[in-house]
Amino acid sequence: MLYTGISSVSPEEAKSSCPSTGKPCSCNSNNVNDKCVVSDNRYKAISYDEVDGTKYTEKELIFPPELLLRTMTSEFDWIWWVNVDDGLVIGAAVSLSDLLSVLRKVVTENAASVGGNICTASLISDLNPLWMAVGAKFLIIDSKGNSRTTLAENFFLGYRKVDLASGMCIQLQETSESWVVADASIAYGGVAPCSLSAKKAKGFLVGKVWDQNLLQDALKVLQNDILLKDDAPGGMVEFRKSLTLSFLFKFFLWVSHQLDGVKESIPASHLSAVHPVHHPTITGSQDYEIMKHGHLWVLLRFIYLQNLRFVTGEAEYADDIQLPSNGFHAALVLSRKPHARILSIDDGSEAMSSHGFVGLFLAKDVLAHNKIEPVVYDEELFATEYVIGVVVADTHENAKAAARKVNVKYEDLPAILSIKEAINAGSFHPNAEKCLIKGDSGQCDRIIEGEVHIGGQELFYLEPHSSLVWTLDGGNEVHMISSTQAPQKHQKYVSHVLGLPMSKIVCKTKRIGGGFGGKETRSAFIAAAASLPAYLLNWPVKLTLDRDVDMMITGQRHSFLGKYKVRFTNEGSVLALDLEIYNNAGNSLDPSLAILERAMFHSDNVYYIPNMRITGKVCFTNFPSHTAFRGFGGPQGMLITENWIHRIADELKMSSEEIKQINFQQGYISHYGQQLEHCTLHQLWNELKLSCDFVKACEQVDLFNSHNCWKKRAIAMVPTKFGISFTTKLMNQAGALVHVYTDGTVLVTNGV
After folding, report:
1. Residue 475 backbone zone (phi > 0: left; psi -120 to 50: alpha; other: beta)
2. Which of 224, 446, 588, 664 could be stapled to 379 by a disulfide with Cβ–Cβ 3.0 to 4.6 Å?
């Protein structure tokens, strides 16, 4: 919303607030009894022209002036800050951007205040460990003027609980032959529900001589002082454990580097841990075509008209569509077990007690078919898998609350949760095994074997899945607005579930809100789930997934396992590849077989391999069905190949770039039968290698690494190919329908 007025308020006026109302005023009165009136018409929402801004009457404000101009009133003049003889007193309202000039190396935020940062007690606060490390004291004053003082290390009681990344400080005393620790303080953020002081490590350090032996012993004490459980919130437990030790090690080197008699013992290659890291400013450029128009040179710069809507937040996505006043919200009832037999489902008696409850819809309410899937019908809409049903209520929050109250009784069954477990159990999707064979193994000089594990990846698109469904013509037609890459699949699923002809189903998609493949097939069951209550109730129903639910049930990029055996010569020429490749499909096939096939097609990357045998299997696991993601299996196949290429290079003591260049393809028939023609790989590789002076860059990297023990650089040239796109041939084409209307406007519909 934009706010404008007759005239702007000056900074001086901005500091004046009405004592009675707290609203900004220009009367400059500080008397509570003085009459102050602020016209409600002064600030009003206005529209403006997107192209040239002709309707702006004043500078756009981010916040309404009532909020922007409000000032704090306090009897304490030092609410900002005062520099005194015995230290720096910092008021709670000091902005972090102002404090940055004093504590430049610690503070990273640009807004908010010191007091707010402290009182939130965030476990990832940058400042709170610093206050603890330097022994800061907090002066706390309540609304009645009562005050008390507490140490920072006693102020933080728990996660976002107070008494109302890391910081280290050391005090050393110089003796005749050494430096002795007189006092110490070590604090960490992000390792506990609140910032944590390492008190055992502090007690151990005091009185000890500052040397390498002290460091080794202190690291052992700290390891037992800062404990992170395996299920600690935030994950990456092993990484965070190593960071706690690394910070102390880096601090030790930094302090030692300042001390005479100690810094000489630090090897030059270790100093990279002492120096701060400086990231160069990132710059970019964009090239535009210039054409001559008469006597003028014209810069051809085409602007995407929707960009203004995107950056101002005005672009409407599926969830932004206003729900009609007679509409309802829906929430899914989710299974709490990865693999179980459902014994009974509460008919909604407990959920009915929820405020705003409208109805609970289960598999028994499905009008036609409960089996859905884009490839084979091996997935159920409701009842026995991850989605058990759908609850409808008057608000989104009420629908979620009611869904949580649906009681489901289970009989636990063994769950398969990894590719290796699936292989051991022989758990594969039926008719989903492929094999490609070319040539034979033959003789070789060397053989390497290994495995490559490739994890999954969250899609994390901008907007979660959302569908708004309503009926028309007395329920004979179903219309919907959905965030999907495949409106036709929504049409198909809803038709299949409701038993209506596809001609009676209309799906519109204005903006997807990010998809990357994740809204190609997995979005359709969301529309199908919303369509059932919308059709039965004959009222509009919107189903929008919260981000956590979206990530739990809609799948991700497939994880892969590749088991390879490679035969090659002592010169580095690859002779044969025997590869077993598996992907984790989850609980339904979805496009997993096509993704596996594409990984198999890319398993040679750009290298000539005369003899190949590749077998692929799609694993059935008790995860939500995984789905399409950018690359569609190609990156996983090439990553496995690059792994064994590097293994060969290590085996032969050669660079990986040499092995790659030796084995480049040129004019041969691939393992899937394609004749490669007009291959410019050698030429392209050599031109790029020369233009970036790759050899010199490698020498610079080697020189840097030889002089730095803890900070390393690396450089690589990695070729990739874009192979066969889709094995379903009709998907390798596209079309467009263009309507030109009599008023000169044009409507373009495009797609596969």
Report:
1. left
2. 588
Do the bridges between strand 289-293 and strand 196-197 make them parallel or antiparallel, or are there none, so unpaired?
A: unpaired
Average pLDDT for 367-371? 95
Distance CA 728, CA 279 (A): 46
Q: Which residues contact 132 (CB under 8 A, 6 or more apart)?
A: 152, 153, 156, 167, 185, 187, 195, 197
Q: Is the distance from CB of 446 to CB of 568 less than 8 angstroms?
A: yes
In the chain, how long is the greatest CA-to-CA distance? 100
Q: Is pLDDT at 85 greater than 80 in this prediction?
A: no
Angle between helix 212-225 and 237-256 (nearest 10): 150
* Predicted confidence (pLDDT) at residue 245 exceeds the cutoff of 70: yes
DSSP-derived 3-state class of residue 573? coil
CA distance 372 to 528: 9
β-pairing verdict for 147-151 and 137-141:
antiparallel
Report the DSSP beta bridge partners of residue 438: 612
Strands 446-454 and 560-568 come out as antiparallel
Q: How far is Cα 285 from Cα 527, in angstroms, rounded to an integer? A: 42
Going by pLDDT thresholds of 50, 70 and 90, the confidence category of residue 500 is very high
The structure tokens listed for 531 are 């369509």
Residue 506: strand, helix, or coil: strand
Token readout for 174 is 């110089």
- From the centroid of its chain, how far is CA 363? 34
Is the Cβ–Cβ distance between 519 and 512 less than 8 Å?
A: yes
Report H helices in 85-232: 96-100, 114-120, 128-133, 152-155, 199-205, 212-225
Please state, in angstroms and rounded to a whole number, the distance separating the CA atoms of residues 361 and 679: 58
The angle formed by the CA atoms of residues 208, 212 and 218, to the nearest 5 degrees, is 55
Question: If you ran DSSP here, which 8-state letter would residue 602 be given?
Answer: T
Q: What is the dotted CATH code of the domain comprising 419-458+559-693?
A: 3.30.365.10
Is the pLDDT reported for residue 19 higher than 70? no
The sign one gets for the Cα dihedral 215, 218, 220, 222 is negative
The residue written with tokens 């292989």 in the block is 423
Rama region for 132: left / alpha / beta (φ>0; ψ in -120 to 50; rest): alpha
Beta bridge partners of 209: 180
Helix (H) or strand (E) holding 637: helix 634-652
Q: Residue 330, Cβ neighbours under 10 Å: how many?
A: 27
Nearest to 559 by CA among 453, 450, 425: 453
Nearest to 614 by CA among 433, 430, 426: 433
Measure the CA–CA gap between 202 and 186, rounded to whole angstroms: 7
Burial class (CB in 10 A: 0-12, 13-18, 19+), 515: buried
CA–CA separation, 426 and 96 (whole Å): 58
- Tokens 């309707």, residue located: 55
What are the boundaries of each domain within the chain?
419-458+559-693
Residue 204 main-chain phi, psi, to 5 deg: -70, -40
Q: Is residue 50 predicted with pLDDT exceeding 70?
A: no
**Predicted pLDDT of residue 304:** 79
The predicted-structure confidence for 638-674, as pLDDT tens digits, reads as follows 999 999 999 999 999 999 999 999 999 988 899 999 8
180: phi then psi, degrees, rounded to nearest 5:
-115, 140
